[in-house]
Structure formats: C-alpha cells, structure tokens
Specification:
This protein has 393 residues and is an alpha/beta fold. The chain has 14 helices and 12 strands. Helix 6 links the parallel strand 5 and strand 6. The chain is globular. The relative contact order is 0.16. The structure holds pyridoxal-5'-phosphate. Pyridoxal-5'-phosphate (PLP) binds next to helix 3.
Length: 393
C-alpha cells in the first residue's frame, strides 16, 4: 500500500473535473471581470454564472453570494461585518466552533462586544434551550456551526436558526465541513449568513463564499473597489471561483457517495478498531455525525506517537483540527465535551473521502492495532493500570 489519505477535514485533493473547469481561466481567459472589453466580459460572464450555480446549490439567490478568500474570511466577514455595522451588543456562539469563529469572537470581546460561549453536552451538542436562555435584548448575532470539524457532530441548526428568526436576530452558520456531506439549504437552516470553503469539497484553496440573505446589512472587512456588492473589494479570482462553483455542483450531485460508500468505510474502520483494540473512546458516539469523520481516543498513548507510526506506513490522519496541530493544549472541542486531558491527548481524527477504498481502511486498522500495542508496551500509565482500563464516554 503506497499512500492512504484520511485527513479530508484538513483539506481534499483537487477533483480533476474541477481543474478542467478552471483551466481556461488560468490561461487564455485571463480578463479582469471589471473590464468592459471582450476579455472582461468573458470573465464577468464566468463569474456571474458561477455565482448563480453556487447560489442554486444552497437554495439561495445569486445576489446573496459573496465570494471570499475561504472559510476563515467568510466567518470573519459574518461576525465582524454584523458587529461593526451594529457598533455594540451581544453575540451568542458555542464553545466548539472553529477558531475562525472563536478567535474572532474573542477579538470582538476585546473590542467591547459581549460574547456568550455556550457549553455543549458530552456528545458535543449545543442545546437549543440554552440558546433561548442566552438571548438578551441587545443580542445582535447568533453563530453556530452546522457540523464540527474535529468530531463530525451535527448541531441542531434548523432549531437554533428558527429561534433566532422568530426573535429577529441575525443567524450565522459555519457550514464549511457540512457542505457536500449532508444537505445544506439556507431556508431550512433559517440562516441569514452561511460560510463555505472550496478546499473541503475537492475545490481549490483560498476561495470560499458567504451567503448573505437579502436584507441583512454588513460592514465590509476589505474596502476598495465595488466588487462583490461592496462587501469584498479586490479583483475577483475568476479561476478559483469557477472551480469552487463546479466543486459545489459535484458535491451536491454526489452527496449520496458519502451516505453510502464513505459511511460504509467509516463503519468498517470503527468496528474493526473497536473490536481489535481495548480502551478506545469513540467521541460523539450515538449522536448524529457527518458520515466520514471518526474521532477516537486511545487510552494511555500520545496521538502524536500514533500519527508518527501511521505516517511511516504512508497513512495520513490528524490529531484534531489541522489548525490546532502544533499547539500543546488539548483540543478545545474535546475539553468542552468533558473529555479528560489524557484521552484528549490520545485522540486521532480520521476523515475519509470519496476516493478511499476498503483495502485502505483494512490496512489502516491493521497498522493502528500494531502501533497502539507497541506504544502501550512502553506506556507507563497503561502498564500501571494493569493493561485493563475500561473507558466510556
Ligand atoms: N470553519 C470550519 C468548521 C473549518 O473546519 C475550517 C477549516 O478547517 C474553516 C472554517 C476555515 O476554512 P478555510 O481553511 O477555508 O479558511
């Protein structure tokens, strides 16, 4: 077995069909979409066709799509855009959001905004009643992700969105990881703002979008020309936008692959590991999860050591969100779920994709079994516990 890629929540390979759609705009069709001559009109036409396609894929109107430089920028535009437009007030989010939301909320708190970080239960789920209780007269925004990048847990967003809608509070949803794995429809989610990113769905890096429902007013982060209805100045990256729209189209057309083939592979990997290795915690077990993500804690071993073993055997996985890698603290998501620091330190995230095979999953399970047993043979806590630790939750 040469290489096995099981880190699709970090990023995905570029689909050759996406590359093919982008190619003309990286060569002969190089115009600036703001120019009035032939080249400009050609770029503008591709840009607006991509906007219409992207909008259709999430049940939006073309003028509700703002192309951005990726998921992080979309989250920033939503949060800072509302906050700066309102000037002051209270924001509600959860403690398991991606850093693009969490750290933006922290920055807004430093600027004088008041922020409530809602807790989650042991599975990582936000309680809609907690959202209701947290709402104040000065609440200006609620931001809850559709699915978590570390655990794959799906949050009760339609319910939370409805609570926000009924109270007239703008609702932002980070759907970066959910897109392409579960249906994403802005109307059923009651979203006023929704973030997307291309590189999580086999599209290019550095391109994303923010859905902005008609009637929602935002201040731009980047000022300059009148691009993107004044919400995101700068010459549009037409090739990336065309690729993103094509990736969205494929993601929606091929959604079923995730719910059949990829789900089957994930179940196989999990059952194989749970049957073959003692002391595994399957985080968010029993809750509604994305079909391709598996987040598992291995008692008495360091995730980094397991990842090193896997890497030597050509298997790529992650110890949490790619952005947290390199930081020594345990993941904020697992901590918020009440997972002990010991289990959090031994947690690996596998995120499968549509190109993975049964052979790859079987091979990964075998390599993991060997790696974990070798590491535990030299693990003091494991030996001390008499090699019989039973862990739940
Ligand atoms: N939101 C979530 C849930 C993510 O998982 C990520 C990336 O990991 C982002 C936002 C940021 O997206 P991007 O990498 O396009 O900036």
């Amino acid at each position: 077995m040469s290489k096995v890629y099981l880190d699709h929540n970090a990023t995905t390979p570029l689909d050759p069909r996406v590359l093919a759609a982008m190619q003309p705009f990286l060569s002969e069709a190089f115009g600036n979409a703001s120019s009035h001559h032939y080249y400009g009109r050609q770029a503008r036409q591709a840009l607006e066709a991509s906007r219409a396609l992207a909008a259709k894929m999430i049940g939006a109107e073309p003028d509700e799509i703002v192309f951005t430089g990726g998921g992080t920028e979309s989250d920033n535009l939503a949060l800072r855009g509302i906050a700066h437009h309102k000037g002051s007030g209270h924001i509600i989010t959860s403690s398991v959001e991606h850093h693009a939301v969490l750290r933006t909320c922290n920055a807004l708190a430093e600027d004088g905004f008041s922020v409530t970080f809602l807790p989650v239960d042991r599975r990582g789920v936000v309680d809609p009643d907690e959202v209701k209780r947290a709402i104040r007269r000065d609440t200006i925004l609620i931001s809850i992700m559709l699915a978590n990048n570390e655990t794959g847990i799906i949050e009760p967003v339609p319910e939370i969105g409805l609570i926000a809608r009924e109270r007239g509070i703008p609702f932002h949803c980070d759907a970066v990881q959910a897109m392409g794995k579960i249906p994403v429809d802005v109307a059923s989610l009651h979203a006023d703002l929704l973030s997307l990113s291309a590189h999580k769905i086999y599209g290019p890096k550095g391109i994303g979008a923010l859905f902005v429902k008609r009637g929602t007013t935002l201040s731009p982060l980047i000022t300059g020309g009148h691009h993107e209805r004044g919400l995101r100045a700068g010459t549009e990256n037409v090739a990336a936008i065309v690729g993103f729209a094509r990736a969205l189209e494929l993601a929606v057309d091929e959604l079923d692959i995730y719910n059949t083939q990829v789900l089957h592979l994930r179940s196989k990997l999990e059952s194989n590991l749970l049957a073959g290795i003692e002391g595994i915690t399957l985080h968010s077990d029993g809750a509604e999860r994305l079909p391709h993500t598996s987040c598992m804690g291995f008692a008495s071993v360091e995730a980094e050591s397991i990842l090193l073993h896997l890497d030597l055997k050509g298997i790529a996985a992650s110890s949490g969100s790619a952005c947290t890698t390199g930081e020594s603290e345990p993941s904020h998501v697992l901590t918020a779920m009440g997972v002990s620091p010991e289990i959090a330190q031994g947690t690996i995230r596998f995120s499968l994709g549509r190109e993975n095979t049964e052979e790859e999953v079987d091979y990964t399970a075998e390599v993991l079994k060997t790696a974990v047993s070798q590491l535990r043979a030299i693990s003091f806590p494991w030996q001390e516990a008499g090699t019989r630790i039973s862990i739940t939750g």
